[in-house]
Amino acid sequence: MPQQLIKVRPTKIELVKLKRRLKLAQRVQKIVKDRLSILTMEFLQTARETVEAKRKLVDAFSGAYKALSMATGYHGYIALEKELIATEADPKVVAGSRNIAGVRIPSFELRGNGKQLRGYNLVDTSSWLDHAAQLAEKCLEATIEIAELQRSLELLGMEIKRTKRITNALEYMIIPGLQATIKYLNMKFEERDREEKGRLKRVKVLVARG
Amino acid sequence: MPNSLPYEKMLQECLRGELRVVNAGLPRSQKQLSALLLEEYPHVICSDGSTHFFKRRELEYLASMINTDEQEALLLPMLIELGSNQAEAAIICQTDVEEKVISKTLSMPTTPKQGRITIYKPQLALLRKRLKTTTQYVFSPKILE
Question: Is the dihedral angle over the CA atoms A85, A87, A88, A94 positive or is it negative?
């Protein structure tokens, strides 16, 4: 694709300005490219972790439902409901953020409520319910993990898209345009020099003829 | 004739903006691991005024690798410097503890040179996987050289 020349006055000052601009554009490109490579690495890492977390989530939920149905079968639906109504779970999710190469990523962490017991009566219940409760807690952990990873993936993806646009603009439009204009100006100055030389020679001949 | 000033200004703004954005997550000051373990919500304040949270699980993982004296010497977040060479990164080491932590995390011996441990992209990915919140990228001015 032929590069579009920037409209500038063909003067030496403009050439110096253009060279300065080119250097600046190349510096921006270097930073943006480095940032893009880091963001891509983080994106791929997060994508791998998301797949793993999704698998864990599905496993955790299927295990928890199985354990809950076993507990329901053992205790009976009404008895189990009576026990679980009294259960007070107060899980705390600490939400914060972290920064990856300029992208603010959410960070969630599940903290226990500090209670040793789950709240239901240990005398009237069995280990089936303990097992179901344990697996349900794992489900909660997996859900929070996937929430963090999916949002990170979205944010990283959006930032990669934006950064790629800047990189492409610099690589395919701005820098080649500047280079082409610098080349054009250099050629123009050389041409002017040659014309000047020719003119001087002609003047010299005319003077010699007298 | 078109005025070149807005164009120049745009490029300057872009450069300044990019440098500001990429280094916005840098902490104003690092904190000791021992101090962070005592905090209810372990965090540091970044240069742009935002907060960078540490995951307790990661802090406990780091604490399990080193003794109490070393926990006081280890400053977090650890800084990963990205230089002009895109294939490698350098971890800034202020003490020997960073070297110990990195070599244990990556399960390989590391040698710091001029206060920096050089690692390559696959190792960087592994390190970031294990220490997501306790490491932070620094885009060094050397990148522009």
Answer: negative
CB contact under 8 A, B1 and A166: no
**Residue A112 scores a pLDDT above 60:** yes
The secondary structure of residue A170, as a DSSP letter, is: I
Work out the minimum CA distance from B118 to partner chain A, whole angstroms.
16
> Sheet of B116-120: strands edge to edge?
B116-120, B88-92, B78-82, B135-139
Who's near B46: CB < 8 A, 6+ residues apart? A99, B24, B25, B26, B27, B28, B52
Our CA-based measurement puts residue B135 at a distance from the nearest CA of chain A, in whole angstroms, of: 10
Give the model confidence (pLDDT) of B119-143 as tens digits: 888 888 888 888 989 998 888 766 5
Strands B88-92, B135-139: pairing kind = unpaired
Kindly list the residues from chain A whose CB atom is less than 8 angstroms away from the CB atom of residue B41: 94, 96
Which residues make beta-bridge pairs with A107? A96
Q: How far apart are the first and last CA of chain A?
A: 53
Cα–Cα distance, A15 to A184 (Å, whole number):
10
Tokens of A159: 């930032």
CB contact under 8 A, A99 and B52: yes
Phi, psi of A117 (to 5 degrees): -100, 155
